[in-house]
Amino acid sequence: MVTKKTALLTGITGQDGSYLAELLLEKGYEVHGIIRRSSSFNTQRIEHVYEDPHTEAQQLFLHYGDLTDSSNMSRLIEKIEPDEIYNLAAQSHVKVSFEVPEYTAQVDALGTLRLLDAIKETGVTTKFYQASTSEMYGKVAETPQNEQTPFYPRSPYAAAKLYAYWITVNYREAYGLHASNGILFNHESPRRGKTFVTRKITRAVARIKHGVQERLYLGNLDARRDWGYAPEYVEAMWLMLQADGPDDYVIATGETYSVREFTAWAFEHAGMPIRWEGEGVDEKGYHAETGDLLVEVDPAYFRPTEVDLLIGDPSKAKEKLGWEAETDVKKLVEIMVDHDLGMVSRLVTLREAGYDVIEQGVD
Ligand code: NDP
Ligand code: GDR
């Protein structure tokens, strides 16, 4: 008889955690997720897979916890004895990390150490996935970036993630753990947090289209990113833990585009083509036909140090894991804009019918 595998996910309420939970449940795993106590619900992204604890065939279990609490981590690992641990939890916003640098290090850097040390100390045999990031490359040394490209972090977030990357490598080498780093480039979806640039754009496009927002304020339009589709990226995480040995892998599409291009495609897809005028911080985007001002740069969104250009070389993942990105950026824009148009349309309809709804409710 094949015994069911058990996985423990930190960050299960986030974009990636929700897609990974779905994937693992589909594969027949028993899934355990760590959630933070919050004064309001923070489980919207996993509501559709949530199961009542009184259900007999329950496959998804949620536990309160926090990466800043070592004893909590140890207790959960000891109790659950997971076959696989996916460490997705993080203060994941680069700009916010400049405001809360110490907290970001506590969670993203030391949180990873706490988990690895809990594995070592409890002696539980498990495989470990660390959510590493292309932000570690930071200031461009070479393109495209692969597993050998030197790191040069440009934010407290990236510096904290760099520690997490190396402590994962160290515990692998020192204690023989099956611990792998996925160096994931930006990946987006309709579940992306609303303050990350892609979702901020697609949501604003939908709101402008439906007349509930006038203008989209952005920061650096010239930053270039390698944007992929999140559901495909969680598949790569799983594949890394199915490999015979642990290793580090770049996961990316291999293509890069600017924030300006993403913005233009999103407006265009919603039937509001824009033309750009002006230079630098005065840059503005106008509706090509009506002349309405739709996009404006607000320096408040600039970062003290920026990552100008990211483009990944995912050939190792293709060769060793058989993984390849399928959704290109234009398709991604369509998926996200279509989702947000639907979301805002339902919101407007409900509000017009007199319901006092907040956006989350129809997301
Ligand atoms: P999200 O910001 O959507 O989710 C972050 C998750 O971490 C949430 O579940 C959040 O809980 C949880 N969390 C935050 N702080 C703590 C804490 N102190 N203790 C326990 N849980 C905590 O991130 P994504 O899903 O986009 O990303 C997943 C991981 O991958 C992150 O580590 C991120 O840094 C990394 N990454 C992401 C990339 C991307 O493009 N999306 C690219 C490369 C790496 P709550 O819901 O309560 O806030
Ligand atoms: P990033 O994603 O910093 O790459 O980190 P984000 O979408 O926040 O920024 C991408 C680029 O867009 C520029 N930008 C803006 N960004 C935001 N958030 N808001 C704006 O208004 C805006 N205008 C321009 C930024 O300056 C930047 O250059 C994400 C996170 O998911 C990390 O956790 C992850 O590790 C990396 O991706 C890979």
TrEMBL record:
Cofactor(s) listed: NADP(+)
Domain NAD(P)-binding as annotated: residue spans: 8-336
Keywords in alphabetical order: Lyase, NADP
UniProt xrefs under SUPFAM superfamilies: NAD(P)-binding Rossmann-fold domains
GO biological processes: 'de novo' GDP-L-fucose biosynthetic process
Pfam families the record matches: GDP_Man_Dehyd
Annotated Gene3D superfamilies: NAD(P)-binding Rossmann-like Domain, UDP-galactose 4-epimerase, domain 1
GO molecular function, one term: GDP-mannose 4,6-dehydratase activity
Recorded superkingdom: Bacteria
Keyword Protein transport found: no
Protein EC: 4.2.1.47
Catalysis performed (reactions): GDP-alpha-D-mannose = GDP-4-dehydro-alpha-D-rhamnose + H2O
Family according to the record: Belongs to the NAD(P)-dependent epimerase/dehydratase family. GDP-mannose 4,6-dehydratase subfamily.
Function: Catalyzes the conversion of GDP-D-mannose to GDP-4-dehydro-6-deoxy-D-mannose.
Name of the protein in question: GDP-mannose 4,6-dehydratase
Organism from which the protein derives: Persicimonas caeni
